[in-house]
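Severity: low
Component: inverse-folding endpoint
Summary: output formatting inconsistent between runs
Steps to reproduce: submit the following structure tokens with default settings.
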């Protein structure tokens, strides 16, 4: 192997990571500079709920509230699980401290709120949380009757937290920004977790990877043609502007001289006047020289 080969590989990977990081975090950073925290109401609200649940669970009434409204166990009846699904995304995870979960939600939801849009981010999060929980329930049922799913002890494991949603949204954002190195790192870390810690959460994370890719495929297909990807401030560039190399919808556009009045538009053979416009039609009110007068 030639000398300095690994140095070139490292420099190549580092350069690619910088490009991908700019593509993923650039628009959210511009939105933060332009509007401040007001640009991220969804991310701040969800992170605040995670932090709130993490705090109140250490009190008597708070623990009762979290347990009876957000805690999900696969041993519970399916109807009870479905009722607790909306808040289970914000309940503390068993293997992650509350501050870590809140930080994950703040970063990933903040990026996706700008890159995907607020409504799309929220709908994707709710759907992924519901589908991964139902997938875990199916694993328990299959394991009970066929012996092929997850062990029955996992039915009594607390199945809460935003980790599956964070994984799916990370995959969605990476595919949207073509950040394939970041995508590969995410998939590799989740696969390693599933092998090293073969528990219910690891299997749900693998399901979340597939759901994130599916959400990207479906979401980009049904996006209306010409719709802005970043419906935020006028000076914040969206992914379409970045791909075109533009600075965003709020910047000036240079006049290229190919507008109304050009030879292509009117079929003329030469421009008229100092600005290249077409001659005014007769009777339009323009002054005409009198017969016999000097030009």
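Observed output (run 2 of 3):
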């Amino acid at each position: 192997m030639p000398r300095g080969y690994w140095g070139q590989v490292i420099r190549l990977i580092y350069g690619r990571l910088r490009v991908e990081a700019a593509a993923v975090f650039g628009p959210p950073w511009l939105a933060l500079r332009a509007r401040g925290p007001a640009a991220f109401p969804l991310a701040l609200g969800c992170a605040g709920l995670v932090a709130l649940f993490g705090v109140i669970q250490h009190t008597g009434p708070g623990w009762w509230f979290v347990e009876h409204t957000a805690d999900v166990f696969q041993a519970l009846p399916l109807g009870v699980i479905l009722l607790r699904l909306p808040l289970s995304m914000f309940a503390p995870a068993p293997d992650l401290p509350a501050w870590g979960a809140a930080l994950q939600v703040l970063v990933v939801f903040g990026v996706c709120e700008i890159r995907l849009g607020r409504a799309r981010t929220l709908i994707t999060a709710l759907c992924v949380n519901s589908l991964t929980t139902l997938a875990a329930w199916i694993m328990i049922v299959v394991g009970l009757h066929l012996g092929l799913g997850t062990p029955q002890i996992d039915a009594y494991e607390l199945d809460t937290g935003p980790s599956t949603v964070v994984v799916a949204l990370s995959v969605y954002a990476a595919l949207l920004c073509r950040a394939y190195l970041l995508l590969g790192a995410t998939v590799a870390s989740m696969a390693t977790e599933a092998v090293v810690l073969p528990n219910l959460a690891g299997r749900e994370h693998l399901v979340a990877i597939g759901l994130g890719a599916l959400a990207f495929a479906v979401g980009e297909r049904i996006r209306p043609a010409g719709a802005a990807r970043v419906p935020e401030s006028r000076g914040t560039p969206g992914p379409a502007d970045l791909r075109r190399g533009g600075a965003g919808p709020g910047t000036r556009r240079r006049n290229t001289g190919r507008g109304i009045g050009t030879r292509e538009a009117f079929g003329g053979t030469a421009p008229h006047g100092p600005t290249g416009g077409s001659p005014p039609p007769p009777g339009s009110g323009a002054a005409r020289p009198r017969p016999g007068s000097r030009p």
